[in-house]
Amino acid sequence: MSEALPAGGLGCSVLVLNRLYMAIRVVSARRAFSLLCRNLAEVVSVENDAYFSYNIDSWLEVSQLKAQYERDTHDFVRTVRCEIAVPRIIRLLGYDRLPRQDVKLNRRNIYARDQSTCQYCRKRFPTRELSLDHVVPRALGGKTTWDNLVCSCVYCNARKGGRTPAQAGMHLVRPPHKPKRNPVINVRLGSDKYASWKHFLDHAYWSVELK
């Protein structure tokens, strides 16, 4: 398989396991195919609660069957010669480091934790219409921490200004907190397409780092 893979399904998310089948990160399908084509990883497919492994050549053969019989449950990438099903999970063949257990404090993760919903007016907005708000303003000693940052719409952020919610007569939907694992993963798990990820994600221990 030497031809370049086109865009499209290459933007899908793929869960990456280390050699010991521990989830370590999520990458784009483009990155996953790159690893597969260099024989640095294999596809792991969950079928009826059993795990099956495929190298890139055998996955190409399986993809033909999936395109014929399971098209609605897969994303596909078309090459000059054929269609390839986008794997949901791959395993690195020579990597056994443990996953990070800390969740990064960044804008994307806070928006995901709060489900892109303003924590004051309870309305959901596109990310371009959202901002981050310090519950206790920095001018009053508030810190840039998980429990002091919330997703806010532009209007509510402006209305609150440099005041606490109590001073502004506003109320939070829920107290902010640090999630136990990357909140973007919880969003993915809400889709049936990524149901197989649940086999490798332990809610109590593992946080998956997005790259």
Could you describe the 3D structure shown?
With about 210 residues, the protein is α+β, with helices and mostly antiparallel strands. It folds into two domains: about 10-100 and about 185-210, no CATH class; about 105-170, DNA Binding (I), subunit A (Orthogonal Bundle), CATH 1.10.30.50. The chain has helices at about 30-35, 55-70, 105-115, 155-160, 165-170, 185-190; strands spanning about 15, 25-30, 40-45, 50-55, 75-80, 85, 90, 130-135, 150-155, 210. Strands 4-3-7-1-2-10 form a six-stranded mixed β-sheet. The protein has a two-stranded antiparallel ribbon with strand order 5-6. Helix 3 (about 105-115) crosses helix 6. The protein is elongated and about 65 Å long.
Secondary structure layout:
Blueprint (H helix, E strand, L loop, with lengths): L12 E5 L5 E6 H9 L3 E7 L2 E5 L1 H14 L6 E3 L4 E3 L3 E4 L14 H7 L16 E5 L14 E5 H7 L4 H4 L14 H7 L19 E2 L1
Parallel strand pairs: 1-7, 2-10
Antiparallel strand pairs: 1-2, 3-4, 3-7, 5-6, 8-9
